[in-house]
Amino acid sequence: MATSKQDSGPFDLTIRNGRIGNADGTRFADIGVRDGVIVAIEQGLPAGKEDVDATGLWLLPGGIDSHTHIEQLSGMGVMCADDFYSGTVAAAFGGTTTILSFCAQHRQDRIPDVLADYAQRAKEKAVIDYGFHLILANPDEQSLVHDLPRIIKDGITSLKVYMTYDKLKLDDYQLLDVLAVAGEQGAMVMLHAENHDMIRWIAKRLLERGHAAPKYHTIAHDALAESEATNRAIALSRLVDVPVLIVHVAGEETVDIIRKAQQLGAKVFAESCPQYLFLEASDADKLGMEGAKFCCSPPPGDKASQEAVWAGFKDGTLSVYSSDHAPYRFDASGKLPKGDATTFKEMANGVPGIELRLPLLFSEGVMKGRLSIEEFVALTATNHARMYGLAPRKGAIAVGADADVALWDPACKVVVDAAMLHDRVGYTPYEGRELQGWPVRVYSRGRCVVKDKELQVERGSGQFIARTRPEPMIDRKPSAERGLFSGLVGLKNPFSGK
């Protein structure tokens, strides 16, 4: 059935003769855009002021990357390589039209101060739309009672907490405080789930024995550290009956724990990333310091772990696919603060992936038959929009939605080369891979952002998107198993004792 609101003159943009892919199905139809919004979807639309023939191409919702580290100071005090200009340009060339990046509070910081600074940086530089998560490192009374409710009301409806890293980790008591406030205010809590003391204990013994090379990072971050912390995070979530999202899931056992918890009714969601589909722990075992290019936390596992992540995407255990773009250069400014003498505990953690996130999954998932186009769209756009309060404005090609559209050529073959990418990292862990399928033109709110391999927009032309209550939080009912304890999240002041 035709869907349109055609009553205000000619379209600003018409994209004709393509095949539209959404999470709920595909269809051949034209797209009519006016004032940055999709106003018509039907066959045979008249030409717009800009008229695009998309014969042979997929028309897919612009990707949403809900886990990016852009212009962020790490817990180790290292500034990442990408600012909001280079990071969003790279995202756009990879078919992504909205990013959510992390505004990081360190323990000494006031949330309003770091947020004001971060927002100004993004406003001046971003070329696509963006929003923020808050990294919460100091859940004191000021943060929990005053600052968090304020920023959630202002459209930052998600926050991330860490169960590891000396300068960021929260203990279980603090995590419960954070979960309680999030449940009361309607925010999504994202958790980096690794057992800090397991990692610290193994790392100490490795270094004492002279095992400092990058490959030992993967040994220190044993898969049990991830699975134990994930199980604990789910238990804390169940205690106060507040949903959580486990980020960058890597291990086979962790996927299984999340799946079983979901089957029992736990309100746990999960994300994974390209590195856990396409990299392995053995990649870090290279001569000299080369292995540092492949080190992130948690580290990639083995083939069985890769297959578990694929299965998790396929059956819905893992509902969002993000890049966890952590861009650190292979020099003293990033991965190698002490040059060749850098130990695995001293190198910056993370791998780049913001531009290749979608092409990797399209090539290896859709083109090789592991995912349908509907599943691809759900994992890369629609589920992010629902999970983080961007729907219905983002995440689907629909009348009334922003005209965020990527035109994908399924016949286009590309051999990955770091020199072709638009980030400022200088290398890619996916060097030399041949991919099939590429976004050849990208629109954000009806603006052509990428065309003919060239950027078409100016820095600062992206917009901040204030987000609504995340969909998994809507109409929550206290779980029967918690009874009285589920009511604790309703306390107006978790410090009041009332």
Which terms would index this structure?
18 strands; alpha/beta; disordered C terminus; 498 residues
List the helices and strands and how they pair.
Blueprint: E1 3-4, E2 13-22, E3 25-34, E4 37-42, E5 50-53, E6 58-61, E7 63-68, H1 84-93, E8 96-104, H2 111-125, E9 129-135, H3 141-153, E10 158-162, H4 172-185, E11 188-192, H5 196-208, H6 215-220, H7 223-240, E12 244-246, H8 252-263, E13 268-272, H9 275-278, H10 303-315, E14 320-321, H11 357-366, H12 373-387, E15 405-415, E16 434-444, E17 447-451, E18 454-455
Parallel strand pairs: 2-5, 2-6, 7-8, 8-9, 9-10, 10-11, 11-12, 12-13, 13-14
Antiparallel strand pairs: 1-4, 2-3, 3-4, 6-15, 15-16, 16-17, 17-18
Helix pairs in contact: 1-2, 3-4, 4-7, 7-8, 8-10
How would you classify the helix and strand content by structural class? alpha/beta
Number of strands: 18
What can be said about the biggest beta sheet?
10 strands, mixed
The H-and-E topology, N to C, reads as EEEEEEEHEHEHEHEHHHEHEHHEHHEEEE
Beta content: 15-25%
**Which spans of ≥5 residues are poorly predicted at pLDDT below 50?**
474-498
**Helical proportion?**
25-40%
Rg to the nearest angstrom?
Answer: 22 Å
Mean of all residue-level pLDDT scores: 93
For the terminal residues, how far apart are their CA atoms?
Answer: 55 Å
> How many DSSP H or I helices?
12
Form type: globular
